[in-house]
Write a structure and sequence with these properties.
The protein is mostly beta strands. It has four helices and ten strands; from the N terminus they run ββββββαββαββαα. Strands 1, 2, 5, 6, 9 and 10 form a six-stranded antiparallel β-sheet that branches. It has a four-stranded antiparallel β-sheet with strand order 4-3-7-8, with no helix packed on it. The longest helix has 9 residues. The chain is extended and about 85 Å long. 16% of the residues are buried.
Length: 255
């Protein structure tokens, strides 16, 4: 009896991190100048010949006017993703069309041409991590990787590793300036990156606090219906206690 084949390895599918409270790492790329190799659009199909029937005379159609101008390439759409965890799926930024493409003229026989595009990206990519010294140490030693994608095919055009060390030095925000993007090996078909430059990448920490119910609110919820709030201390408590607790929190930016 032949030996059984080993079982297929189980690949754990990554899920999105849906937690909305905690400390967040925000990576913002305001603009990027990308020279992309874009395939020309498919020329329109010629008109179908007129249908004739036996014994019926059909007037031939006049040929359509010929457009001598070269076709414009389709505008590529790109987006960034932020890979940061073996457990959670990468955080994705908005799919973005170029703000000011510089179209190049098509040449006869070309199958593609390099065109420089100026992209203005909107919302930053962000991911959550826990607060505390141990979480900060884990963040600094974590592999954080930005990927530039062609949104149409999903192909990766370039990658950019990010170093989180400035956070260990006490900074809450830092910039990475004038980043040159190296083209990533991509499939033979589709959009490809020839060259790219990111003027600035801004990385920052923000915190979103979870709202906490006060002891008085908890007492009101647990009391029998109709109990006056004054009897539970709802109106006679010391308001300074809450203000003092709020003032003792570290002044962190809000997400």
């Amino acid at each position: 009896m032949p030996p059984k084949a080993p079982p297929e390895p189980v690949v754990q599918e990554k899920v999105a991190d849906t937690r909305v409270y905690g400390v967040f790492v925000n990576v913002n790329i305001p603009t990027a100048i990308l020279t992309l190799l874009v395939a020309p659009p498919t020329p329109p199909a010629p008109p179908e010949p007129p249908v004739t029937a036996k014994g019926v005379k059909v007037t031939p159609l006049s040929p359509p006017p010929v457009d001598a101008s070269p076709p414009e390439p389709d505008e590529p759409v790109t987006h960034w993703s932020l890979e940061y965890s073996e457990e959670f799926a990468p955080a994705a930024g908005p799919h973005t069309k170029p703000a000011s493409p510089k179209h190049a003229s098509w040449k006869s026989g070309d199958v593609s041409t390099a065109i420089e595009f100026h992209f203005e990206y909107g919302a930053p990519c962000a991911f959550r991590h826990d607060a505390g010294h141990a979480a900060l140490e884990e963040l600094v030693n974590r592999d954080v990787l930005l990927r530039l994608h062609d949104s149409g095919s999903g192909a990766v055009l370039a990658t950019l590793p990010l170093d989180m060390l400035p956070f260990a030095l006490g900074q809450q925000t830092f910039d990475v300036d004038d980043v040159e993007l190296a083209p990533y090996p991509s499939p033979p078909a589709g959009t490809k990156l020839v060259a790219g430059r990111v003027p600035k990448v801004t990385v920052s920490l923000t915190r979103r606090e979870q709202p906490h119910a006060s002891a008085t609110d908890d007492a009101v919820d647990a009391a029998p219906a109709g109990t006056p709030r004054a009897a539970l201390g709802a109106d006679g408590g010391d308001a300074g206690d809450g203000a003092a607790a709020a003032a003792s929190r570290p002044p962190l930016p809000e997400a």
